[in-house]
C-alpha cells in the first residue's frame, strides 16, 4: 500500500463570514497569536509524514505564497540584530516541505478546487486539509487518517459528531462502527435537510483519497450551491467501494467563523510559551 506523501490545501474560498477582515487579508492568513492559520495546517501535514504540498489559492491571496517564501531583507536584519533563533524559525518556514501553488481561476466548489490538483497528485493517494480548519492535538489529525488509509486501502474521511443544526450546513455520513474510532462509510449526503440525515457524523476538515477520485469528480455534476461538491464524489466512492471514517482526536477551530477564530486565539494563547502565563492572568481579571 502506497504511503501518503502528498497533500493539497484548498485555500481559494472568499471567506465571506469573516468580512470585512477577509476583504484584504485571506482568512487562511489570519493570525492565531503569532502564526497564520495556514502555517498550523502545513505543520500538521509535515508532522504526518507528508513531503509535498500543493496550496490552491485564487486572486488576492499572494500573501500566502509570500509567507512560505524566503525573505532575505528580513533574515539579514534578524542576523544583524543577533536574533538567531527567530532567523532559524523564519528560514524553517520556507523549508518545511516542497510547497507549490496553483490558482483556482473560478470559484466553482471544493470538488473543482481538488480537480485543479490532478497534475500534482498523479497516480498517488493524497491528503486534503481544508484551509478553513485548524486542528491541534498531540497527534496530527492527518496522520491518523493516513494510518487508516495504509491499513484499509480505502478512502478515509475525518469525521466528528455534530449538532443537527451544524449537520445541515456540513454533511451526514451513513456509518457502521468497526472498532475504536474507525467506522465504515457506505453513503453520505451534502447539506442534508433533517429528513435526509444518515447520522450525526459529518466530515470535518480532513480526507485521504485515492487518485481515482479525479475521474469521479470529472463526471460529477454541480450539486449544492450549483458547485462541484467533493462530498458528491466521495459519495460515489463510498457507495462503490466503501470508505473509512476516523473520529479523529484533536481540537478543531473553524477559521471561517468569527467565534472559531476567537476560540483558537484564546486557547492557543493560554498555552503559548511567551505570553500564556500573563494572558491567563489578564483573562482572570477581565472575568472578575
Main pleated-sheet profile: 9 strands, mixed
Give the overall shape, derived from the CA principal axes.
globular
Output the number of helix runs: 12
User: What gap, in angstroms, lies between the N and C termini?
Assistant: 56 Å
Q: How do the strands of the widest beta sheet line up side by side?
A: 5-4-1-6-11-8-12-10-9
What would you say this structure looks like, in words?
- The protein is an alpha/beta fold.
- It has twelve helices and 13 strands.
- Helix 3 runs antiparallel to helix 4 and helix 11 (258-271) crosses helix 12.
- The mean pLDDT is 92.
Features:
288 residues; alpha/beta; 12 helices; 24% strand
Quick synopsis:
The chain is of the alpha/beta class. It is built from twelve helices and 13 strands.
Amino acid at each position: 500500500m502506497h504511503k501518503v506523501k502528498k497533500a493539497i490545501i484548498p485555500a481559494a474560498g472568499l471567506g465571506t463570514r469573516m468580512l470585512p477582515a477577509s476583504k484584504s487579508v485571506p482568512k487562511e492568513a489570519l493570525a492565531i497569536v503569532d502564526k497564520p492559520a495556514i502555517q498550523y495546517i502545513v505543520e500538521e501535514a509535515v508532522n504526518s509524514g507528508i513531503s509535498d504540498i500543493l496550496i490552491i489559492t485564487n486572486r488576492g491571496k499572494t500573501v500566502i505564497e509570500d509567507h512560505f517564501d524566503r525573505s532575505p531583507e528580513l533574515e539579514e536584519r534578524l542576523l544583524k540584530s543577533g536574533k538567531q533563533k527567530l532567523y532559524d524559525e523564519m528560514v524553517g518556514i520556507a523549508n518545511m516541505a516542497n510547497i507549490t501553488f496553483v490558482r483556482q481561476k473560478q470559484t466553482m466548489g471544493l470538488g473543482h478546487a481538488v480537480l485543479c490538483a490532478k497534475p500534482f497528485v498523479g497516480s498517488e493517494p493524497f491528503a486534503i486539509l481544508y484551509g478553513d480548519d485548524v486542528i491541534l492535538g498531540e497527534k496530527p489529525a492527518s496522520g491518523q487518517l493516513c494510518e487508516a488509509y495504509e491499513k484499509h486501502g480505502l478512502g478515509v474521511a475525518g469525521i466528528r459528531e455534530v449538532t443537527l443544526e451544524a449537520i445541515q450546513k456540513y454533511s451526514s455520513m451513513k456509518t457502521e462502527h468497526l472498532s475504536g474510532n474507525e467506522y465504515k462509510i457506505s453513503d453520505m449526503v451534502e447539506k442534508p435537510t433533517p429528513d435526509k440525515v444518515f447520522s450525526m457524523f459529518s466530515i470535518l476538515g480532513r480526507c485521504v483519497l485515492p487518485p481515482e477520485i479525479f475521474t469521479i469528480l470529472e463526471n460529477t455534476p454541480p450539486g449544492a450551491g450549483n458547485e462541484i461538491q467533493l462530498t458528491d464524489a466521495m459519495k460515489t466512492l463510498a457507495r462503490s467501494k466503501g470508505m473509512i471514517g476516523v473520529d479523529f482526536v484533536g481540537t478543531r477551530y473553524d477559521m471561517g467563523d468569527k467565534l472559531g477564530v476567537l476560540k483558537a486565539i484564546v486557547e492557543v494563547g493560554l498555552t503559548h510559551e511567551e505570553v500564556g502565563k500573563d494572558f491567563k492572568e489578564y483573562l482572570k481579571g477581565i472575568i472578575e
